[in-house]
Amino acid sequence: MASKQPSRKGKKAWRKNVDISEINAGLDQLRDEIIQGGVIVEKTDEQLFALDTTGDTAIAKAHFKTAKVLKADEIISARSAVPAIRKRPGLNTTNGIIAKKARRANVITYKDIERMKATAYGQEAASGELTSTKNITIDYDPWAEEAPQDVAKKEALRETEFSFIPAPQPFKEPKTLKQPPVSLAVSGRPVPAVRVPEAGISYNPEFAQWDALLQKEGAKEVELEQKRLAEKAEAERIKALAAIPDEEEESDEENHSTESDTEAEKPVKKMPDRKTQAQRNKIKRRKELELIRLQEQRLKRQAAEFSLVKKYAKDVEARERLRLAKRAARLNIDDDEKNPKLMRRRKFGKVGLPRAPLELQLPDELADSLRTLKPEGNLLRDRMRSLRERGVLETRLPVTQRRKHQKKVSEKWSYKDFK
Predict the structure, then answer these.
(1) Which of 18, 21, 125, 381 sits a CA distance of 20 to 30 A from 31?
(2) Residue 29 falls inside a structural domain
(3) 3-state SS class at 343
(4) pLDDT tens per residue across span 348-405
(5) Distances from the Cα of 143 to the Cαs of 6, 147, 223, in angstroms?
(6) Residue 246 to residues 253, 255, 298, Cα–Cα distance (Å)
(7) Count of structural domains within the chain
């Protein structure tokens, strides 16, 4: 159990039981400061501190022993014992003494000295008077049209001395320079520079809006994929039809080969014997069969072509129906803000406007917070596409430089020696 606090009743008990060690330590420190030169608290900052403006040379030497001097400092450092050549003083430089008083004893006047100096240097003496900029007139304007007299002088000079140089043709501005750009929208009306985006592409969209946009874009992608597969199947079918060998050509080749064999076997040509009636009937029947076979082949080829024509006619009819439907829908379009990706087929330039990128987050890409958000789209690409949609810029493809010389594959002689 801790001892109780000692009693401080009375002076003797108070002196005995009160701790004054801190006060004694403070008094001892104060006495030491007085002995060493004075109390530190009572001194000023100038008495306590000193500002070193030169630094320690030993520290600088030790630093330069370990650190390498920069090449730029080494180049501009003065290492030569010969001083550098001074620049020739100008006409208006002075050493503080008035020129007239310095040359008053000379016979030559100050004006003559300045005139001779200007003549020696090949320039006119600088005048001490300053000219106001208000009095200066501009004689040449690079953006103004040429005066008639200047044009006449140039034409006369061209006719006399430079007649062999063809005259430059004046620039003609195109008719469409002052016309407004033609919009590429379906309705043909001007497209706004900045469209109002759909609510489903927000980083934190409502489920109904996001789901509707996802279903719509998914249906578009499925339709495009089906169209691509149909085109691929049609191309493969046409390729297979083209690969079918022609029987007529094969028969011609066989006849030619048999004839060449018979010619090789019978180098000496004999007079043909007189054909009998049976041989003539056999040849006639063979020609009739050959004619029937050729007619069947022709009918088969015509049937294949007719099927292709029917298919192409169906495609054309479907495209025409689609065009009419789009035209009817185009008349019902009230606002292009609701159809930002609906562009017409007309091109501004050699290349059509590409399909707009899909800026939609999939279910696994939706973020819970801005920290885990994956940004979609690009502002620079959006601005460029907006300029193309409004008809301000034409759509172009990057031009790649074609290789001038073809690669040549050669075989080394060292490899040929081992054959």
Answers:
(1) 18
(2) no
(3) strand
(4) 778 888 888 888 888 888 888 888 887 777 889 999 988 988 888 888 888 877 777 7
(5) 105, 12, 57
(6) 11, 15, 11
(7) 1
112 within a domain of the structure (yes/no): yes
Residues contacting residue 70 through CB under 8 Å, at least 6 positions apart: none
CA-nearest of 331, 385, 398, 381 to 184 is: 385
Q: What is the token pair recorded at 395?
A: 């759509």
Report yes or no on 107 lying in a domain: yes
If phi > 0 it is left, if psi is from -120 to 50 it is alpha, else beta; for residue 10 that is left
Mapped onto helix, strand or coil, the DSSP state of residue 114 is: helix
In this prediction, residue 301 carries a pLDDT of 86
Report the pLDDT value the prediction gives residue 95, as an integer from 0 to 100: 64
Lookup: tokens for 307: 């099927």
What is the DSSP annotation of 170-182?
Answer: PP---GGGSSPPP
Residue 404 lies in a domain: no
Q: With contact defined as beta carbons under 8 Å apart, do 184 and 389 qualify?
A: yes
Query: Given the structure tokens 């301000």, which residue do they identify?
Result: 392
Looking up tokens 């691509």 gives 228
From CA 137, how far away is CA 149, in angstroms rounded?
Answer: 20
